[in-house]
Every structure is written in structure tokens, then in C-alpha cells.
Amino acid sequence: MKLSPREAPGYFAKPDPARTGLLIYGADAMRVALKRQQVIAALVGPTGEEEMRLTRIPAGDLCKDPALLLDAIKAIGFFPGPRVAFVEEANDTIAETVLSALSEWQNGDAQIIVTAGTLKATSKLRKAFEAHKNAFAVGIYDDPPTREEIEKTLGDAGIAAPSGDVMAQITALARDLDPGDFRQTMEKLGLYKRGDSTPLSGADLLACAPTSTEAALDDVLNIVADAKQGEIGPVLRKLQSQGVNAVSLCIGAMRHFRALHVAASDPGGPGAGISKVRPPVFGPRRDRMVRQAQSWGVANLETALTLLTDTDLQLRSAGQNAPALALVERALIRLAMLGNRRNT
Question: Quick one: angle between helices 232-241 and 218-225, nearest 10?
């Protein structure tokens, strides 16, 4: 039988141990793996593997020895409780073996859990589960996580779901990160907040969110956006000693000012616009960028982006002979001076 996307989350959380089996398939291996882990944990419990109530069978091994699956579902366990025979990375080459095991299955046998990549509607493996009266097949797609899924991940990490702006930031992070990275980030956040009874804040989220590759550029970009041209040179020397090159610096500046432009252009104001920036920004950095967007305004930000685009083209020009970092430094100083004129 087919398990609809609406029914799937509930079934993953509380699977029926009397079912013959479950096929989980999809293009994103991490999403499939997370759902498989959830189902198996719900079926056999936290000690299932230790008690040998979980048998893992790679599809490659099953190709070499088709009897492995039938032996696994019929085996008598030493410990009481539901058992699972898990076949990973399956495809149609083992469809007949799985079909045979499904037909031989009886009450009391281990439940058959199978994971696979993308399967067409004509797939023998997919058809076998969809046509079975006591088994399910469900496709996992790259849809953004629902609020229920996000709240469950938070609950698993021991975090009460916040309201308002912080929940919106968590939702943005969930949509920006891979499912596994998001779960790890929430687990880290749960440990970070352990013993802390204060409400979850954007600063807490910033402390635990993955650090972007552009984080080292934040200091100089904020100095420019805050119109502090006298501080640009020393910070650039520091970045240069760390191996940051001129092109990366220019790209980082363009990304920063483009994000400010998105925020400043939003009909709901910079506070609403900054929530649409990807990757999402949190905590004090978010507040600072909102202030920068308000201060610069759309027209000045468009001028800044034009200047940065011209600098980027000059850096990539075949006839360019001037020191690259000097060109970027000059552009950043001009931006900071533009910011100063804006404030006068």
C-alpha cells in the first residue's frame, strides 16, 4: 500500500509492528536514512541492536546470497520483542528476492524495512510494496520540513518550541541546512541550553548554528557598512595574513550588500526582509544588518552594488595589472566614504 506524505510522519513516529514491511525511497539519502532510523528505533527500541533484534543486510550481500533475507525474518531471537530485517541501498536487482520474502512472511516474523534511492513508478521493488496488503511504500522528497517535523526535532533535542521571531529563524535554518545537519545543530543547541531556564534567543541560535565560510570576513564588512573607513586597512592586513584573497573579499562584500539590499527593499521593512536572506542570519548579527539596511537605504545600496560589480569585473580583467588587494581596499574605502556622506 502507498503511504501518503500526510500520513507518513505519524507512521514513522509510531509504526505498526504487525505489518509485513516498509519501503522508504527517495533521491536524498540523508532524508531517507533519518526516516529509516526513526522507524527502526520505534519498532525495536533503544536496545534492539544490542539484543540482536535488528539484522542489517546490504543489498550487495543479498545479491550474492538471496537466502539472507528469508533467514533473517524467520530467525528466532534470544530476546523478546519485535524484530527487524533491514535491507539498505536496495534496487530492482533484488526485487525478486524481496518479493519472495514478502510472500513467505507470517505473523511473528521480523518486519522487513527496505531503503532505496529514486524508484520509478514502474520499479518492481516499489510495485511489490505498493501492491502488498500488509506492507507500505513511501517516497521521501526534498520538500521543506513542516512545522510538526521541526517541533519534533526540537523536542527530541530537549528544546521547547519557541514562538515568534526565534521560531521563524529556526524554520529558516531548517530549510537552509540538510536534515542531518539541522538535527545535529538542534542537538548541539539542546546541550548548550541544558540547565538554562531562560527563553531560547537568537543569540543562542547564533552560538550553535554552523559557521559560514564567510564568517572571517564579517569584521571588515561590518566596518565598511558602518562607515568606519579608518579601520579598514588594519583588518585587511589581518585577513591577508590569514590567506583571504581579493576576489573572495569582493564576493563576500557583494553578498553582504546584496543581503542589505534585499532587506531594505522589502515592503514590510528591513526586519521582514532580513528573514528572507539565505543563508539565514541570527542574533546580534541579524540586528546589526537590519540597522545597516535602514541606515543605507535602497538607493545607496544600489550604488554600492554597482561599485562592487565594477571592482569584481576589474579584478577578473585580463589587462588588470594593479595589486588586486589594493583595488578591493580602495573600493571598500569608497563605500565607507559613501556611508559617511549618507550620514551627513
Answer: 160
- Look at the block and give the residue holding cell 506524505: 5
77's torsion region: left (phi>0), alpha (psi -120 to 50) or beta? beta
**Cα–Cα distances in Å, from 64 out to 68, 93, 97, 105, 111?**
9, 11, 11, 21, 22
Would you tell me how many other CB atoms lie within 10 Å of the CB of residue 343?
A: 9
| Lateral strand order in the sheet of 111-116 | 54-58, 84-90, 111-116, 21-25, 135-139
Exposed e or buried b per residue across 257-283, where buried means at least 16 C-beta atoms within 10 angstroms of its C-beta? bebbbbbbebeeebeebbbebeebbbb
Closest to 116 in 3D by CA, of 8, 27, 25, 37: 25
What does each C-alpha distance from 305 to 77, 223, 286, 311, 322 come to in angstroms?
A: 67, 16, 20, 10, 21
Q: How would you classify residue 195: left for phi > 0, otherwise alpha for psi between -120 and 50, otherwise beta?
A: left
Backbone φ and ψ of 10, nearest 5°: -65, -40
pLDDT tens by residue, 249-296: 888 889 899 999 999 999 999 988 998 888 788 777 888 899 999 989
Give how far Cα 200 sits from Cα of 37, 118, 154, 183, Å.
28, 38, 11, 17
Angle at 11 between CA 126 and CA 149, to 5 degrees: 105
pLDDT digit string (tens) for 56-76? 999 999 999 999 999 999 998
Residues constituting the chain: 344
Find the distance separating the first CA and the last CA of the chain, reported in whole Å: 69
Burial degree of 45 (CB within 10 A; 0-12, 13-18, 19+): middle
- CA-nearest of 217, 232, 214, 218 to 340 is 232
**CA-CA-CA-CA dihedral for 174, 175, 179, 183, to nearest 10:** -10
pTM over 0.70: no
Which residue bears the cell 509485513?
20
